[in-house]
Write a structure and sequence with these properties.
The protein is of the alpha/beta class. It is built from ten helices and twelve strands. Helix 1 crosses helix 9 and helix 5 packs across helix 6.
């Protein structure tokens, strides 16, 4: 009899995670069931408790619960501790252990699938929520030269920078400063603007023909930012679908001790990505 897993988010009906983990199950022969559970922020803790009491063995956490999930864990991995956010829960007795596979998923997608070298890049991170927290430590570990964090709420950008603990390498700026910051080699959009159908304006001055532009969302939620990146003549414009698949594979490995192959499911999903919505 298979074990029980879920992805928690709000909204979450669009999530590809059940499909991805079903594909991993078929590939590896590991029996499991995996469902999507929609929980509003005020109901998240209770929904997670019900899942645990019903025999839940592990969970993925997507927007907007990644930082709240960290507070519900009895222990955190080093990755989750540095991120201050959790996207993967592992049941250990009566408690949850928290991890974060977002960062390694993003770096693996960019460096291995796309063959990109992130070392030495002057990097701009747009947003300071759970998604940004998840990827920022891994970007630093991948060797970027410096990281500038810009968020609509400056205090959240400052909090993320403080948590990263590298003041000579990590900086924060105000959103209105974007026009005067000069060009970046690497721009990561970790905002929820696409998901929330908000329009954010990005000056072309932050990009050049050598810039790598990445949106952590995929499908419809990534269309506006990727269109801006192409209009700004960025060298590459990449959405978050590959990151989604890679972080899922890392979660699967935590739960089952086996890391599935990801290229086939990525190829299957990428053909229809324009019909999808937001990153997990």
């Amino acid at each position: 009899m298979g074990k029980h897993y879920a992805v928690f988010g709000h909204p979450v009906s669009h999530s590809l995670s059940p499909r991805i983990h079903a594909a991993f199950s078929r590939q590896t022969g590991v029996p499991l069931d995996y469902v999507a559970i929609d929980a509003a922020p005020e109901d998240f803790a209770a929904a997670l408790a019900r899942f645990a009491n019903g025999g839940g063995d592990g969970a993925n956490i997507t927007l907007p619960h990644k930082q709240a999930a960290a507070a519900l864990c009895s222990s955190l991995s080093e990755r989750a501790r540095r991120a201050g956010a959790v996207n993967t829960l592992v049941r250990a007795g009566e408690h949850w252990q928290g991890d974060n596979t977002d960062g390694i998923g993003l770096v693996r997608d960019l460096t291995e699938r796309h063959g990109l070298d992130l070392r030495g890049r002057r990097t701009l991170l747009l947003g300071a929520g759970g998604a940004a927290h998840g990827v920022a430590p891994a970007l630093l570990d991948a060797g970027i030269a410096e990281l500038t964090i810009v968020n609509r709420s400056p205090e959240k950008a400052d909090a993320l920078a403080d948590a990263l603990g590298e003041p000579g390498r990590v900086h924060t700026r105000y959103w209105n400063d974007l026009v005067s910051l000069g060009p970046y080699d690497f721009i990561v959009n970790a905002t929820s603007a696409g998901r929330d159908q908000l329009t954010l304006s990005f000056p072309r001055a932050i990009a050049t023909s050598r810039t790598l532009a990445v949106d952590l969302s995929y499908g419809e939620a990534a269309i506006a930012f990727l269109a801006w990146a192409r209009s700004a003549q960025c060298a590459q414009a990449i959405d978050g679908l590959g990151m989604l698949v890679e972080q899922a594979a890392e979660s699967f490995a935590l739960w089952h001790g086996r890391r599935p192959e990801t290229d086939r499911i990525y190829a299957e999903l990428s053909g229809q990505s324009v019909a999808l919505h937001t990153a997990d």
